[in-house]
Amino acid sequence: MQTPDLETVEMVRVALQEVISAREHGAQAVPYFAPTDIGMLSPDERQKESKVEEETDYGNRVRAGIHMTLSAAVAALEVAEALMKDFATVDPKDRKRELVRCSLNARVARDAAGEAAAVLSGQQAPKSDAMVEIKRLKTALFQRFGIGE
After folding, report:
1. Does pLDDT of 144 surpass 80?
2. Under 8 Å CB-to-CB from 138, ≥6 apart: which residues?
3. Closest listed residue to residue 86, CA positions, set 73, 72, 102, 74
4. Of 17, 94, 135, 146, which residue is the least packed, with the fewest Cβ within 10 Å?
5. CB atoms within 10 A of CB 81
């Protein structure tokens, strides 16, 4: 049964999915490549390099946190949507099974939010895109040694 509340939940979920899709390419962590000669750098250069590393880590955590919290919200809204849409007409003998299904999906949302919290708090590193890392490594090798590209 379609209600104004259900329509609102559906619209919010769809809107969040559109935001996630639009941000998809910016969600991956950007790798940081420390100079191999960091011990030879002057104290000022080391401090600048440390600042670059900190800024890269901060940006990665923010981007991942945005993506992960939006994804967790979508998962939670999907559970609410299922409860609002289907449960008025669920056969009494199927109710327990459907509630268990929803509880499992709610745990997915909880786990996604927990992973976001771990990334934001620094307990877990954001996942990076292996292809971005490979491309950046090739560029770094070319710039430093003229290898590749």
Report:
1. no
2. 148, 149
3. 102
4. 146
5. 15
